[in-house]
Amino acid sequence: GLTEAFLHSGSKSVLASLSPVSDAASVEFMKDFYTNLKTQDKAESLALAQRKMLTESRQHPRFWSPFILVGKDR
């Protein structure tokens, strides 16, 4: 799929979604992920963004669980 294409073309890692996620939830999630990425590795940034959604308005797994990190976490 598309994730594999990015990895084969030289990307070290890809943050992908396994299923559709609402646009508003994705925006919120990505803002948190990239903010965390300034001080954390990719895997920890992902985990922190997921945990934040659990403690706020988007607790249902459909908003945060589809996101996965494929490749290197550093």
Note down, in words, how this protein is organized:
- This protein has 74 residues and is an alpha+beta fold.
- It is built from four helices and two strands, in the order αβαααβ.
- It has a two-stranded antiparallel ribbon with strand order 1-2.
- Helix 2 crosses helix 3.
Secondary-structure blueprint of this entry?
Blueprint: H1 2-8, E1 13-17, H2 23-37, H3 42-55, H4 61-64, E2 67-71
Antiparallel strand pairs: 1-2
Strand content: 5-15%
Spans where pLDDT lies below 50 across 5 or more residues: none
Separate helix tally = 4
> How many strands?
2
Share of helix, binned: 40-55%
User: What order do the helices and strands follow?
Assistant: HEHHHE
Characterize the main sheet.
2 strands, antiparallel
State the secondary-structure class: alpha+beta
Overall mean pLDDT stands at 94
How would you sum up the global shape? globular
Distance between the termini: 23 Å
Spatial extent as radius of gyration: 12 Å
Give a brief outline of the structure:
The chain has 74 residues and is an alpha+beta fold. The chain is built from four helices and two strands.
What are the key terms here?
74 residues; alpha+beta; two-stranded antiparallel sheet; 4 helices; globular
